[in-house]
Design brief:
This protein has 279 residues and is α/β, with parallel strands linked by helices. Helix content is 53%, strand content 9%. The protein has 13 helices and 7 strands. The chain has a 5-stranded mixed β-sheet. The chain has a two-stranded antiparallel ribbon with strand order 6-7. A hairpin with a 6-residue loop joins strand 4 (43-44) and strand 5. Bound molecules: zinc ion. This is BTB domain-containing protein. Residues 14-78 form the BTB domain. InterPro entries: BTB/POZ_dom, SKP1/BTB/POZ_sf.
């Protein structure tokens, strides 16, 4: 066997070997016992030292994994190795690496939403699945071309496409009537108030319908729901904005939510989304 020693993790006083991808790591059972106890279930007896064979994982990933486990290194996952690290962490229940991987994704998913969504699905990370679905659905026509989208299970691809299609249909049905026809005014001059609302909503609807294809759901949300300022009937208008318009919008487009990390911002963007829990 043409194996070589790891340059980083071959400790002379190590008492167990890890073999991955023709590379031998010599490490300490006590460290594994704390950081990756499940790994020790795969221990086999060797000539001099016991060993653990890790198939299907590259030596560079084991290198990084051990650097995370050993106290003298500080290392963070990257987009290049996050998939392999989570694979290793979930298959061998290595909590420290799992937590580092999920933390990396929670902090960085905005930079690479499609790939983060793919990983959230693959490793059953429900929270991240919903969060990343917001950004993916906001630009689905673009992300559909991404290789991470193609690698998704078909039922997940279909769920994304179905949610986006229903949004596209809602845009096509936009009308001033939908928002205004059933509103009961409480102000002194309903005719005038209604005229003001009608003008403003009409202009919003045509802004949306005039856009070229693929106007983002988050954009439609902010156009329709941004505050309408009127000259009279402030209370009636506040009620219209807060209750009626928002309700009518949801009835037409379904639920929107902002990103959890944006929730304390003053005017966070809101998105359509899908969840992993089907109940
Ligand atoms: Zn009114």
């Amino acid at each position: 066997m043409n194996s070589k020693r790891s340059e980083l993790h071959y400790y002379p006083d190590g008492d167990i070997l890890i073999i991955a991808d023709k590379t031998i790591f010599r490490v300490h059972k006590n460290i594994l016992k704390m950081a990756a106890p499940t790994l020790l279930n795969h221990e086999q007896q060797g000539n001099e030292l016991p060993f653990i064979n890790i198939p299907n994982v590259s030596s560079s990933v084991v290198d990084i994994a051990l650097s995370m486990i050993y106290p003298r290194h500080f290392i963070m996952p990257t987009w290049m190795n996050i998939d392999a690290l989570l694979f290793l962490a979930s298959n061998y229940s290595i909590n420290k690496i799992y937590v580092a991987g999920v933390t990396f994704l929670d902090q960085n998913f905005k930079k690479n939403p499609m790939f983060a969504f793919y990983l959230a699905e693959k490793y059953k990370l429900s929270f991240l699945f919903e969060e990343t679905s917001k950004l993916v659905l906001d630009q689905l026509p673009k992300y559909k071309e991404d290789s991470a989208f193609q690698k998704l299970p078909l039922e997940i691809q279909s769920a994304l496409i179905a949610r986006h299609m229903s949004y596209v249909h809602s845009v096509a049905e936009l009308s001033v009537n939908h928002f205004l026809s059933t509103y009961r005014h409480t102000c002194n001059n309903p005719a005038f108030h209604n005229k003001e609302l009608n003008q403003e909503i009409e202009s919003r609807v045509s802004t949306i319908l005039d856009q070229p294809n693929n106007i983002k759901p988050s954009k439609v949300w902010s156009i329709i729901l941004s505050h309408i300022t009127v000259t009279d009937g402030i209370d009636c208008n506040d009620y219209f904005m807060r209750e009626h318009l928002a309700k009518k919008f949801t009835a037409m487009f379904g639920d929107f939510k902002c990103l959890d990390i944006d929730k304390d911002e003053e005017n966070p963007k809101c998105y359509i989304y899908i969840s992993r829990n089907k109940s």
